[in-house]
Amino acid sequence: MNSSPSTILPKAVSVPARVSPRRHLAQAAPWLAAAAVVGYALVVGGYPATVVGFALIYAIFVSGLNIFMGLTAQVSFGQSAFAAIGGYGSAILTTQYDWTWAPAMLAGLAAAVAAAFVIGYPTLRLKGHYLSMATLAIGLIAHEIAVQWESVTLGYLGISGVPPIDIAGFELSSDRATLTMLTVCVLATAFAVARIRRSRLGRAFAGLAGSEDAARALGIDVARYKLLSFLLAAGFASFSGSLFVHVVGYVSPEVFSLHMVILSFTMLYVGGIGTVVGPVIGALVVSVLPETFRALRDYQDLAYGAALILLLIFAPRGLAGLFAALDTRRKP
């Protein structure tokens, strides 16, 4: 009687990999560091709360940029244009038409996503430095429109008197209340990015990041998914722009200039491109670091630049990658 291999050999039992405590520490360390900075700002209040609040707004903006650049491996220098649409949309609707914050924010977000669709459909067919130059032109054009369209944007004079964020009839006028709300928004953004990264959509983005030709061979609609990534990034940028104008109470073209793009790129690479926590920790470090060198006065910019260079040298994958170096291999 012949015996099949299955009757002779015992069945292999798969043992789940045990995650080491150091791996848990590596995953939790950047979030704990960010929580410590935000917690300190909540306790102290005042100027530290304002600085950290602006950092959290940038964290939302950079998280959207991270979807397009980190998950999909595309390059965009024009995300500030969509932040401007969201910011000016909220400012105009609330100051001139007496809208509340939430409907004005949603209207600005819808306008930004619509503009991203119109712009991105033909633009995203470009590749490499051609795409970079095209997106840079988008940001410059948006800035010029904000300057020249004075009947709507008031030009360099800007729009003042933007009301604070209103939630269920309660205005967030104090710095601690605003910081708490921004913390919730950042956590919701990070959760959304993490879900996108692990979803089928995120796997399609990863395929595009690896090789567009290989992704196309696997049946992935490259143009469609690049456009979806661009729309998601535009939505987060618009949301951050709306938050900014309502927290500050004022908006002008300088807010959404090329400096915003350079700063967001710095935050993305310092924190760790392609990671969920990278934009958060990068925004906090780049925003808080200059304040630590303020006592140096004339040498403040020199110390700040040297610190950023050292961070990029010793943490080429960003601070999130530096924390991940604590991880060890999984044991079978």
TrEMBL record:
Q: Give the matching InterPro entries.
A: ABC_transp_permease (IPR001851), LivM-like (IPR043428)
Name the Pfam families on file.
BPD_transp_2 (PF02653)
Locate the transmembrane regions by residue number.
25-43, 49-68, 99-121, 133-157, 177-194, 227-248, 268-290, 302-326
What topology does the record note for this protein and the membrane?
Answer: Multi-pass membrane protein
Q: Which GO terms describe its molecular function?
A: branched-chain amino acid transmembrane transporter activity
Location in or out of the cell:
Cell membrane
One annotated Gene Ontology cellular component of this protein: plasma membrane
PANTHER family the UniProt entry points to = HIGH-AFFINITY BRANCHED-CHAIN AMINO ACID TRANSPORT PROTEIN BRAE (PTHR30482:SF10), HIGH-AFFINITY BRANCHED-CHAIN AMINO ACID TRANSPORT SYSTEM PERMEASE (PTHR30482)
Task: Quote the protein name from its UniProt record.
Answer: Branched-chain amino acid ABC transporter permease
